[in-house]
Specification:
Distance between the termini: 26 Å
Order of helices and strands: EEEHEEHEHHHEHEHEEHH
Number of helices: 9
CATH architecture of the domain at 5-89 and 161-250: 3-Layer(aba) Sandwich
Largest sheet: 6 strands, mixed
GO molecular function, one term: ATP binding
Subcellular location: Cell membrane
Strand order of the largest sheet: 6-7-8-3-9-10
Shape: globular
Membrane topology: Peripheral membrane protein
CATH superfamily of the domain at 5-89 and 161-250: P-loop containing nucleotide triphosphate hydrolases
Keywords: ATP-binding, Cell membrane, Membrane, Nucleotide-binding, Translocase, Transmembrane, Transmembrane helix, Transport
Strand content: 15-25%
CATH class of the domain at 5-89 and 161-250: Alpha Beta
Helix content: 25-40%
Pfam families: ABC_tran
Mean pLDDT: 92
CATH topology of the domain at 5-89 and 161-250: Rossmann fold
Number of strands: 10
Structural class: alpha/beta
Radius of gyration: 18 Å
Amino acid sequence: MTSTASLEVAGLAYAYPDGHQALFGVDLTVGQGERVALLGPNGAGKTTLVLHLNGILTGGVGTVAVAGLPVAKRNLAEIRRRVGIVFQDPDDQLFMPTVREDVAFGPAAAGMRGAELEERVRAALDQVGMADFADRPPHHLSFGQRRRVAVATVLAMRPEILVLDEPSSNLDPASRRELADILRSLDVTVLMVTHDLPYALELCPRSVILSEGVIAADGRTQELLCDDKLMRAHRLELPFGFDPRTPLLTRPSR
């Protein structure tokens, strides 16, 4: 972890209008360029935490800052440029007639035009290996290709932090590997919300376990996954036969 923090969450507590308390004072610091997995059972508060990072949810107790900039109403436009969220279903993000138009949407809405906009779109599609599909309708693409385009729509905004919600879900093995290669190549801070523990181990040196609205553990991913008692306590289960102690390079999937 570097000395520069991309994300600082301090004492974040949040209750929904119906009274359900989702977070109970979360403290989390993520360094610039880190890749961190956010793990935890359903209902742990992971989505609630993520939605605070770019101001989709507000009104909680505590503070959230991105590269030193507080997540507050006066800063929301800049915060939403700095924090890009890739949702689990790419169809929630792709709505334009062509891939190019989808990727251009964010920068164009921010006022970018002409050659600068075209270059921004091309660069984002190159990063995810989808430049040859710029003129295709998104709904003609495979699920894995649509997810890569969804990542490109966020990268086109040049974010400080890339937040991914279950990035490996519904991907075939080849698409899963391709996305992993893309994520490893990006020079951004990554926070990955996932139930796919092997994927977390492959991509994220550090993991945080959120359980019942609090941080239950924070450390090296391999060490956390090897702690059987910790895993059972927070309803986290590795796939049958998967040994987190095995070096990644010896696994058939890689």
